[in-house]
Amino acid sequence: MAAQQVGTFKEFCPLYSILNAIPAKVQKGFRSILVYLTALDANSDFIAVGSSIGMLYLYCRHTSQMKKYSLEGKTESISVVKLLSCFDDLVAVGTVSGRVAVFQLVSPLPGRNKQLRRFDVLGVHKSNINALAWSPNGMKLFSGDDRGKIIQSDLDFDKGSCNPSLILEEPSSVVQLDYSQKVLLVSTSQRCLLFYTEEKAVKQVGTQPRKSNGKYGACFTPGLCKQSDLKLFASRPGLRLWKSDVHGYVQSTFILKDMLSKGLEPFELYPRLENSNQDRFVLSEKHFGLMYCFLYEGWVLSWDEYSIYIIDTVNQAVIGGLESSGDIVSVSCTNNEIFFLKGDREIIRISNMPEGALSASLHSPFRAHTPVFIEDGKHHIGTLSEIKENDQIDVQSIKTEKIQLCAIEDEESLVDQATDLKSRTCSLSTDQVKSRSSSINSIDSGFSLTATAEPVSPSNGQRPASQRFSIISNEEFEQELVVKSMKVKKKKKKRHGNHFFLCGTEHIYTSVSYK
Questions:
Q1: Which of 309, 325, 353 is the last residue of a domain?
Q2: Are the CB atoms for 493 and 503 separated by under 8 Å?
Q3: Checking CA distances to 292, which of 53, 301, 304, 488 falls within 20 to 30 Å?
Q4: Helical spans, DSSP H, in 391-454
Q5: According to the model, what pLDDT value does residue 504 have?
Q6: What is the pLDDT of residues 262-314, one digit of tens each?
Q7: 351-373 burial code (b ≥16 CB/10 A, e <16)
Q8: What is the C-alpha separation between 371 and 432, in angstroms, rounded?
Q9: Tens-digit pLDDT profile for residues 215-264
Q10: 427 is in which domain, residue-wise?
Q11: Is 322 among the domain residues?
C-alpha cells in the first residue's frame, strides 16, 4: 500500500456567514437582551444552533440561508439539539427546564413534508435536558435529564402524535445517549449501561466501578450490522478507553496517559485579534469526556469543557486535538468535519479540507478503515510493515478529481450526436471510415470504428500500444486534458423527383488540447 500523508486538521476560515446571521442582542419590551449560543449539532445538510433566548437557528449548508424556529411560551435557554436526516429532516431540542420539542422541517423534494410541524414532550422531564438520541428512522426519540430520567417518545408523523413514556431512571445525571439496533447506550456520571428496548433489560458495561464520577460518555461504532455484532467505546477516568461488545463485556482497554503526556499536534486555529492577548488555561489534570466515532474505523473523538482529542485506537496514536482551551460548550462531528461551540458565541469548524471541498467518498457510510502510523512527526496512511517494504517513499498529498455534471438535455443531445455518427459511419466506405477514425481517435489510433479495418501493427508505420504508452513522461501524464465539443450541423435532405439523396457529408471533429 502506498503511503500518503494525512491532511492536517485545522480551521480554514471563521464561519462569519453563520455568526452574522444570529443577532448579538434582541429587544424584549424596553430591555435589550444579549443572545448567547448554548448548543450545537451539525450534519452534511444543516448546522443547528441553540440560544439562550429559546430560539433555534438552523443554517442550510446548501443554500447558505439561516432560518429561526421559536419554542413559543416561556423564554428559556436551549441546552441540547440533535439533527436527523432520514425520510424527513428532523431537529430535536431540549431546554434547561425539561422541555423537549421536535421540528419536522419543510423539504422542497417531491413526496416530502411541505408544512413545518412541531411536536412537544411536556410534563415528563422536570430538570435540564442533557442528552438526546434518535432512532435511525426518526420514529423514536430518547431524552435524558439531570435527575437520571430517560424518556422514550414514540412519534407518528402521519397521525401527528407524540407519546412519551419513562423507560429508565438512574440515581445520577445522564451524560450521553446513543441508540442502535434496538439497544440504548446510556452513560451517566456514575456508570455506563445498555438498555434493550424490546426485552426491557439492563446490563452494565464492565464490572469494575468508576474510581470517580464525572461526565464520561460512550458511543456505538457505526456500521451496518446485526445486534450481536455491535461494539462500543466508553471513556474512563485516568485517560482510559474501553471497547466493549453489546453484552457489556470489555474486550480492550486503551491506556493513553503516557501518550498524551508527550504532547499532541494541536489544531491550527484561525488567528483572532480579540484572543491574541489572552492566556491559555492550564490544565491540572487531563480527562476524556463525551465520545463520538469519527471519520475512520477505530477513530474516536472525545471532548470536555477544556480539551478535544482525536484518538486512533487501532494504532494507539493521537491524531490531533485541542488542549487548554476552556469554555468549550458543545461539539459535533460529521464526515471529516468537527464543529464546536466556544465561549458565548464562537462557532469553529475543524477539518482537513476547506468548506465545500469535500470528496464524495467522505459521505459514504461504508468507508473502509485505512491504518495510520506516525513517523517523523507526520501521520501516514498504511501499516508500518507495508510502508517499510519500499526503500524510497514518495509522500504526496491526496489528489482529487473534479467531475463535471451535465444536464439531462445536454446528455440526450450527446447521445443523439453519437447515434448520428454511427449511422453515417455505416453508410461510408471502408477507406473513409479509416481516415475519419484516425482523425477522431487521434490519441489512441489503435482502435477503429469498424470491424473491417486493418489491425494496427508496427509494419503499418505505427507503434504498438505498449510502446507508445511507455514513452509518456510523468509531466505529460499530469497535464490536464481539455476536450471541447463542436456543434454539428444536421443533414439536409433534398428532394429530386421521387428520390432522396444526401447533400454533403459533415465531419465531426473533437479538438483536444493540453494545459
A1: 353
A2: yes
A3: 53
A4: 408-426, 430-440
A5: 43
A6: 888 899 999 887 654 455 666 778 999 999 999 999 999 999 999 999 999 99
A7: bbbeeeebeeebeeeebeeebbb
A8: 56
A9: 999 999 998 789 999 999 999 999 999 999 999 999 999 999 999 988 88
A10: 408-514
A11: no
pLDDT at position 194 over 90: yes
Helices (H) and strands (E) in the chain, counts: 7, 36
Mean pLDDT score of the chain, rounded to an integer?
78
How big, in percent rounded to 5, are the helix, strand and coil portions of the chain? 10, 40, 50
What is the C-alpha to C-alpha distance for residues 172 and 154, in angstroms, rounded to an integer? 24
Integer Cα distance of 152 and 165 in angstroms:
5
Burial of 404 (0-12, 13-18, 19+ CB in 10 A): exposed
Any idea which residue has 440560544 for its cell? Answer: 51
* Domain contains 33: yes
The domain boundary residue, chosen from 308, 328, 353: 353
Exposed / middle / buried, residue 321 (Cβ in 10 Å: 0-12, 13-18, 19+)? buried
Taking the CA of residue 197 as centre, how many other CA atoms within 13 Å lie in the half-sphere pointing to its CB?
21
Distance CA 189, CA 212 (A): 9
The tally of domains found in the chain comes to 2
User: What pLDDT, on a 0 to 100 scale, did the predictor assign at position 324?
Assistant: 82
Task: For residue 219, tell me if it sits in a domain.
Answer: no
Which of 82, 104, 85 lies closest to 93 in space, CA to CA? 82
Q: What is the CATH number of the domain that holds 25?
A: 2.130.10.10
Question: Distance of CA 335 to CAs 174, 225, 326, Å?
Answer: 26, 20, 25
Nearest to 304 by CA among 274, 337, 328: 328
Is the pTM here over 0.85, yes or no? no
491 in a domain, yes or no? yes
